[in-house]
């Protein structure tokens, strides 16, 4: 069924609004001279990779008579396994199967993607409450997940067959659109091939997974990392798959979140009565967003929050029915958003308001307040532990209010991301992205401007109005407090089905096709501007290294190579202090030390020690913190630090690239 728009003005006026957005984007490209920041080399490499994937898929199309979409999907799955590793891929597959088994028990077998997300929510919340207990081993989580999958093996098989049948129908309905969309999604997923190298990941997010792997528990001590008890649902799930694989498995897990996002977008597009070709186009538009591959390469929460928010919106759009199951699904998804980050839960409140309006008969039921209370309890593990241990449930945020002794008595903030919230923000984030993200201009793509007119049409037409307003609110809520572009990503993705539906209502198909293809190509051309790893050609180098992480880490974050050497050669010595500008100390767990703002007490001691040219203060600091291993970059050392290492009798053990591992004698053999 095709949907036609009912507007108070003519369809020509709606088409005019669409072309006004396209014209504004062209004007912005010229005005801001965007060709000067175009990563042409990276775009060329992406096109070559797309050609290579197509070449590998061709024999399956030619001799196995597969549709191009299916052949390309197999190529991309094979590439992910080859680049990220077989065991990490199998670990994530087991986690998703167990989550699907668990979730379908609560909400039924008819909606596999929604059930899988609900199961992940249960596992993440359960793991959060159990995080500090010494129960996290492969022989605890492995049998538990295997038992869940085995218990529900037959329903899982049925759901898999049903999903494959639905996939094949969707491909047959629009084979060309499906092929191009799968090609774009595969390119976006290449970020999941890379090892973990992002600043926040190596300083914080890796902490919980590595502590679970090495000690079986998570230490609730914010002394050396003030974010220790920040919402941790994403890290819990990474910790589970790291236990299963016995190595980091971030990439395949992020690919799983991408699949769930696509399933949610498909459900939303179907709810808007879009034909199959435009449902595929919605997925292609999502894949083209520069932030997608950037999130695939990181442990940031936005990848999980995007999938969860989109699936929550698809649940709200469903016709009223199966109230108990839908309410359970809604509370689990909201609990997961809360457990990922308070900002995600806050941004999802407009969706809850829409749900209350759309399904208002539930408001008179006792189930609604009970579900709300359960969601808060499920998602509150990190907040509860932080309140109990540190006196601040959102440490280090709002510490001017809570006055935790583990951080300064002021409200944490970053002045870089307070450039002003006004009507021009979408334009400025698009063409001056470097002011709103650690990225290059164009690094969030051009949807906000190029399809800005379509956004007005989406708000105008009744069929898409609620979804468009919720998506815009989901973008505006986090940006109102801090103009940091990554926080807008979940809302932007949620807006895509409404934008495509608005284009479908306003434009004839040939013109619609040109607008969508042009926007996708423009996004793809600037995709590498979203993150430094993409911008510097890390994916090309990873392919050249056939997925071997060590040479890539040695080039970009050599401290991680030295960290592996310390775990192997000095596993039982004292603390490890990372002095270099790459704060790769999270993977050391309770042994890790930094002298930066993440550890205010040590940072204060460092400032004092740097004022003592004799080095004695630094020697005392090393002894007081029981530091025996030091990671440093010689070019970054201060004179006081050099003198302190000499006074402590430290000697160089190993160097990799710009980084070095030094060891302080303690009278014990390493």
Automatic annotation (TrEMBL):
Highest taxon of the lineage: Bacteria
Keyword field contains Transmembrane helix: yes
Residues that span the membrane, as ranges: 12-31, 43-61, 73-101, 113-132, 265-287, 329-356, 368-387, 439-459, 466-485, 491-507, 514-534
Key words, A-Z: Membrane, Transmembrane, Transmembrane helix
The keyword Repressor is annotated on this UniProt entry: no
Protein name, per record: Glycosyltransferase RgtA/B/C/D-like domain-containing protein
